[in-house]
Backbone:
């Protein structure tokens, strides 16, 4: 999964860190991980989590979706999202960096609509 992730500039984790993070997600009741495989190789993955809100509707959020460059344009990302939607009934959201115009087009092409712009603050 690290090899696929590095194509979108996600920070590279050591194999130990990657395994630990994946195990945490797989052990979580709030998180799901789906992978796309072709000829014994992972060519894409999707991380989905359930977001509970006090003052608004709960929803599923795509925490990450990555498809290897050589597999893009073949419906892998679409299939991962559709599979996640089929397994989980409810509202879905995804946040995209404002610079990732290709991601915006992808999500719009599979039925997502832009609902707001926001800033992310962290300490």
Residues:
């Amino acid at each position: 999964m690290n090899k696929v992730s590095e194509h979108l500039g996600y920070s590279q984790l050591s194999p130990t860190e990657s395994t630990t993070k994946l195990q945490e997600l797989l052990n979580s009741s709030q998180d799901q991980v789906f992978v796309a495989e072709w000829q014994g190789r992972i060519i894409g993955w999707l991380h989905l989590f359930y977001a509970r809100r006090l003052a608004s509707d709960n929803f599923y959020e795509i925490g990450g979706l990555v498809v290897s460059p050589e597999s893009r344009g073949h419906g892998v990302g679409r299939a991962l999202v559709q599979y996640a939607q089929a397994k989980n009934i409810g509202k879905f959201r995804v946040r995209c960096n404002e610079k990732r115009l290709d991601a915006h087009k992808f999500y719009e092409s599979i039925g997502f609509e832009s609902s707001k712009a926001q800033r992310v603050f962290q300490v």
